[in-house]
Design goal:
The chain is α+β, with helices and mostly antiparallel strands. It has a single domain, classed as 3-Layer(aba) Sandwich (Aminopeptidase), CATH 3.40.630.30. The protein has 2 helices and 5 strands; from the N terminus they run ββββαβα.
Amino acid sequence: MEYTIIHAPERCRFETVVEGRTAYVEYQRTCNDLSIIHTIVPQPIEGRGIASALVKAAFDYAREEGLTPRAVCSYAAVWLGRHPEYI
């Protein structure tokens, strides 16, 4: 399933709303890196690939900006391990 993901740079996050609930990844950006520090998907909408879509959107943005993707949160670390093309 595809989700409409919005980049909210003023809040340092990528987010989507599903069934009235907001899921998001929060990041920190430095000169050379983009680190995902939190991946939040409310329990009622878990298990639908939302976290994966959000992490992908953030790391796609990092690529576009020439930043190195980094994963601080455990979910993003697992995601990077499954997608070595982003490392």
